Amino acid sequence: MQALAKRKQRSPALHSAKGFAAAETLAAPHQHSQTRKRTAGIANLRLGALNLFFLAVLTTSLFVACAKRPLSPSELRAITVEVVAASQRISTHKSEITIRPEVREMGDRKISTDHIYVTLGGDSEITALREALGAIARRHHLQLVESGASVRRFDFTFNGERTHSIHIVSPLAERSRPSPGRSVRVPRLAIIIDDLGNDRAAADALLSLPFPLTISVLPHLPLSSEIAEEAYRRNDQVMLHLPMESQGESAPSEGTKPEEIELRVGMNRNQVHQVVSSMIDTVPHVSGVNNHQGSRATTDAALMQAVMEELRARNLYFIDSRTTASTVAYDQAHAARVRAASRKVFLDDVPARDAILAQLDQAARDATRDGSAIAIGHPHPATIAALAEEAPRLEARGIRIVFASDLVQ
Ligand SMILES: [Zn+2]
Question: Which end of the chain is less packed: N or C, by CB atoms within 10 Å?
């Protein structure tokens, strides 16, 4: 509880909203101005019960369901208000609620979905919410779809289109964290999820997993800053997923697409500094770096030396994703006295449940044999579901899930 209060102090902007009108224009003041522009329209807030009550009365009285057109913004929002009110009633106002409106362009049409993130204490509260959502769905002629055994989500759809996603998030206080202090050779496993920065829903599903997770965020993407901020708020660890030149770039037939901004062979120390600085500006709270692609860049000793000098100056650790067997990144990191480690297992080269569970098992056996291991995955639904399913079993096997920073040396 104390930790929760501390975290809240770190993001005062999230709590200053006085209601929906304020929420629509809310932007965290500490965000980079460029980022603020990109994330305009995305509102995170906690809502006062009183405001909700008046809004609910006002908007439901105006609300008329019509079967053939999409929901209007005010209809959509009225339903959101009902969901929030139900969540607060069920949790006796203890629930932490965040709303993120999403608008997708489909040809000339705009499709709106409200994402509502609700922390709930346990199964009885989820059961009560399921009932309340059923009643809301009937009132507004919506379909209610429930998904996920471990990452729980309820969707409303209207004429086949998703209007609301209600994500059930485990409360911060309930998340298990590695206890500090001495460990008696407990096998340790770090799980890094790469390639974040585009998909907030996937990020939120990951960040609600009840174990320490290291997320590696690609720079310069629309949600890079926002996702890094949320991971930090939830006490997960943030890495910069640093795009580097890959072997296939001169041969487009291999299907690798060069990133717009990346580290390329031939860049000098100053150019490396410029590129890394611009990237870190878009990913706050970075504690380390791993390479995105880089099958060419990580074989180039001069470039890797420049990169490691930059990381050393910033006191960041390095995880070699090992996208090629002839990488020299790890050796160069050690030469520059940058704390480093190498990836042992890719979790989801085959993004299917059984394959991912088998890779997690491999990572667990590596950790048991060697004392520690690092596994890298991606924000695929199958990966998130497999992690949710397998993590309790890993812990039951005596393996401790830790941050990447715990395994660098
Ligand atoms: Zn990547």
Answer: N
Q: How many Å lie between the centroid of ligand 1 and the Cα of residue 349?
A: 12
With CA atoms as reference, report the closest residue to 266 among 295, 288, 245, 284. Answer: 245
Q: Are 172 and 4 in contact (CB under 8 A)?
A: yes
The DSSP-derived string for 343-395 is --EES-SS-SHHHHHHHHHHHHHHHHHHSEEEEEE---HHHHHHHHHHHHHHH
Q: How far is the CA of 85 from the centre of ligand 1 (A)?
A: 40
Please give the model's pTM, rounded to 2 decimal places.
0.60
Q: Specify the domain boundaries for CATH 3.20.20.370 within the chain.
A: 175-406
What is the CATH superfamily name and number for domain 46-172? Beta Polymerase, domain 2 (3.30.460.10)
Residue 49 has pLDDT above 60, yes or no: no
CA separation for the pair 63, 67 (Å, rounded): 13
83-92 pLDDT, tens digit each: 999 998 998 8
- Residue 321 Cα to ligand 1 midpoint, Å, equals 9
- Is residue 153 within a helix (H) or strand (E), and if so which, with residue range? strand 153-158
Q: Is the dihedral of CA 211, 212, 218, 220 positive or negative?
A: positive
Measured in Å, residue 291 CA sits from the centre of ligand 1 at 7
User: What CA–CA distance (Å, rounded) separates 151 from 201?
Assistant: 11
Query: Superfamily for 175-406?
Result: Glycoside hydrolase/deacetylase (3.20.20.370)
**Ligand 1: distance of its center to the CA of 323 in Å?**
10
How remote is the CA of residue 107 from the centroid of ligand 1, in Å? 29
pLDDT band at 99 (very low <50, low <70, confident <90, very high): confident
Task: Give the distance (Å) from ligand 1 centre to CA of residue 296.
Answer: 14
CATH 3.30.460.10 region(s) of the chain?
46-172
CA of 293 to the centre of ligand 1 (A): 6
Structure-token pair, residue 25: 């224009």
383 CA → ligand 1 middle, Å: 15
